[in-house]
Amino acid sequence: MNHLITFLKSKKGMLGVIFLVTLIQVFGILLVPFFVAQIINVGIMEKDIDSILWIGLEMLAAAGITTLISLWSSYLCADLASLTGKHMRELIFDKTQRLSIREFNQFGTASLITRATGDITIIQQTMIMITQLILPTPLIAMAAVMMTAMVSIELIYIPLAAMVVFLILILVLFKKASPVSRTIQLRVDRVNRVVRESIVGVRVIRAFDNTSYEQKRSDDTFVAYADNVIHLNKLFAVFNPMVWAIMGITMVAVAWFGGYLVLQETTQIGSIMAVMQYTIIILMFLMMSAMVIVMVPRMIACLERISEVLETELEISDRTEAGEQPNVHENNQIVFKNVSFSYQGAEQPVLKNLNFSCEAGKTTAIIGGTGSGKSTIAALMLRLYDIQDGEIFVAGNDIKKMTQHALRDCISYVPQKAFMFSGTIADNLRTGKPDATDEELMQAGKIAQAEAFIATLEAGYESPVAQGGTNFSGGQKQRLCIARALVKKAPIYIFDDSFSALDYQTDAALRSELKRAMKDACLVVVAQRISTIMDADQIIVLDEGRIAGIGRHEELMNTCSIYQEIADSQVKREG
How are beta strands 334-341 and 351-358 bridged, if at all? Predict the structure, then answer.
């Protein structure tokens, strides 16, 4: 809520114009009943055709100007709502890019998408209706009551009584609808999550013939959402006839008592018609306001959900004294000193008292069993998580004293799960270096062993990439991700199990090219296959989060039982 208020304060000029235009619009709306009364009292009752003609032309001009003013008001309100949506989406996007992995997972992908799209859309729509329907309502009500009093002080009690009854009805509706409106967005989150899982996991669902279970799960989610919406619609279904009943009774009362005043010759017929129209205008705007007011709790809930993201205290943030550029040394590019790390809620640490260094110009491989913490080490080097104990140095700097930008600028990373963005191959390869030349792309593609299959594509490096790279095989995506990392030309490269989808021949050719082209860089290779790391300058063997051995392949085969077990199991499996 505070973010919205702050933004609206910055738009005081636009809000002032909207308020001024609303005043003119209210004046124009209330002029029409006045002209109707004049036509009846002056023109019809006195049979003055000229007066009817001129008053009619004046009423037409007033209606035309009011219409134009209303169009301008609609444009201004829509413009303000659009700017608000743009501003809040920028805030959400910027914040999500700075959330830690744990914080990101805490909200969930489906919920963050809903907050950045559906929630903000609801805020925009509600803002438009508030400025167009709720903002004029008190002005119209006060002005209409004053003009009714000018016509007949005796009739003023009828619209006032109708307004009081109407406001009580609105308060009851608001109280009933508020909790329902607040829960709708939570239901939307669940619908998005279930639909996303059923689409992303369609292969698994079909492979396990689990369609009936997913259908039931989806139906339950959709029914829960539908029940909320139906409940809200039922409240409106009860509200609408009551509103029309109040309006009908009010019109009858105005006609009854107004007719009596006309018979007493204290009020003219045209004035009674004007009072009736003023009353109708008041009640119509109150009715529309009631419908908008019911949406306000949903808007508030959306604002709270967005504020929950924006006001999340960042787990990983730059220190105020953090330096922008690291001091690059020739040796000890990455150093772990007594590093221990636990995931939140875990009973045991994932990594325990790690001490090792990865030097420039050499390849350091990390291997171990499933769950030994290999990929966690790669994530800690990028500071995707913060360690609880110990220190990590990159290029001679404690990573907690570096800005995240400076840290990640000197590291080129290939993730365990190959992910491609929608666009072209060239767009993806330029992710880390937007100004990379075509020659640099082709050189990276050649080293990554991707050049051969790219050459078979009709558009080459301009070939389209589907969202997530689904139009390429696992091996092709891995090679493209490796090429993307090579284009960046960083002093440190981290390959997180990035060769698993490659055949042995391609794997060997790629490693040979990497060793030749990246001879001055610090290479960190997380791997499952021993064949991938046999020629590494240093191999770190992990076992249950601890270092079980460090050395070259030949040394470890003689001294490390864990490494021997991994090698034996892979030889037997391959044999």
Answer: antiparallel
Which domains occur in the chain, in start order? 2-310 (1.20.1560.10), 334-574 (3.40.50.300)
Q: Is 384 helix (H, G, I), strand (E, B) or coil?
A: coil
Rounded Cα distance, 223 and 326, in Å: 55
Residue 435 backbone dihedrals phi, psi, to 5 degrees: -95, 15
Dist. CA 35–CA 24, nearest whole Å: 17
The answer to whether residues 394 and 407 touch, using CB atoms and an 8 Å cutoff, is yes
For 415-447, what is each residue's pLDDT tens digit? Answer: 888 888 888 999 999 998 899 999 999 999 999
Q: What is the pLDDT of residues 186-245, one digit of tens each?
A: 788 788 888 888 887 887 888 888 888 888 888 888 898 888 888 888 877 787 788 788
Using the structure block, give the residue that is written with the tokens 């809000």.
Answer: 15
For strand 389-394 and strand 334-341, is the pairing parallel, antiparallel, or unpaired?
A: antiparallel
Under a CB-based contact definition with an 8 Å cutoff, are residues 92 and 115 in contact?
yes
The single-letter code of the amino acid at 383 is R
* Three-state DSSP state, 316: coil
- Are 538 and 547 a contacting pair, CB within 8 Å? no
* 550-574: pLDDT as tens digits: 999 999 998 888 888 888 887 654 4
Alpha-carbon dihedral sign for residues 33, 34, 36, 37: positive
Pairing of strands 546-551, 538-543: antiparallel
Report whether pLDDT(329) > 50. no
Q: Which residues pair with 336 in a beta bridge?
A: 356, 392
- Is residue 194 a contact partner of residue 215, using CB atoms and an 8 Å limit? no
**Helix/strand/coil (H/E/C) assignment for every residue in 431-491:** CCCCCCCHHHHHHHHHHCCCHHHHHCCCCHHHCEECHHHCCCCHHHHHHHHHHHHHHHCCC
- As a whole number of angstroms, the distance between CA 104 and CA 108 comes to 6
Taking the C-alpha atoms of residue 454 and residue 466, their distance in angstroms, rounded to an integer, is 15
